[in-house]
């Protein structure tokens, strides 16, 4: 079974909201999933995603492939966490 980490669309017309899920790559976009590991709101400014990075690491170590968008969100959140860590260490 090929597992992917991808976005699942929710919300109404012109007001999208996404959940970041781990799903079988053969299932439809809004279909069955294995686990919800975060959310993403593209309409919100600033920090618009929340993600459990420990679960991301677990799934990636077990062979899950993140989509391009989710990979970008992961990179941004890791960078933000690293920046916040450096700022607290220097203070």
Describe the structure.
The chain is of the alpha+beta class. It has a single domain (3-90), classed as Ribosomal protein S16 (S16 Ribosomal Protein, Chain: A, 2-Layer Sandwich), CATH 3.30.1320.10. The chain is built from 2 helices and 5 strands, in the order ββββαβα. It has helices at residues 53-61, 68-90, and strands at 3-12, 15-24, 35-40, 49-51, 65-66. Strand 1 (3-12) and strand 2 (15-24) form a beta hairpin. The mean pLDDT is 92.
In short:
The chain has helices spanning 53-61, 68-90; strands at residues 3-12, 15-24, 35-40, 49-51, 65-66. The chain is an alpha+beta fold and 91 residues long. A five-stranded mixed beta sheet has the order 4-3-2-1-5.
The total beta strand count reads 5
Gyration radius, in Å: 14 Å
Strand content: 25-35%
Average of the residue pLDDT scores: 92
Specify the number of helices. Answer: 2
In CATH, what is the class? Alpha Beta
Give a topology summary.
Blueprint (H helix, E strand, L loop, with lengths): L2 E10 L2 E10 L10 E6 L8 E3 L1 H9 L3 E2 L1 H23 L1
Parallel strand pairs: 1-5
Antiparallel strand pairs: 1-2, 2-3, 3-4
Give short descriptive properties of this protein.
5-stranded mixed β-sheet; flat; 91 residues; single chain
């Amino acid at each position: 079974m090929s597992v992917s980490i991808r976005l699942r669309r929710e919300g109404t017309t012109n007001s999208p909201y996404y959940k970041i899920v781990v799903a079988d790559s053969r299932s439809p976009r809004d279909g069955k999933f294995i686990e919800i590991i975060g959310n993403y709101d593209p309409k919100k400014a600033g920090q618009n995603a929340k993600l459990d990075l420990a679960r991301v690491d677990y799934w990636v170590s077990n062979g899950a492939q993140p989509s391009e968008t989710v990979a970008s969100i992961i990179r941004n959140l890791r960078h933000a966490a690293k920046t916040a860590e450096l700022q607290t260490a220097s203070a």
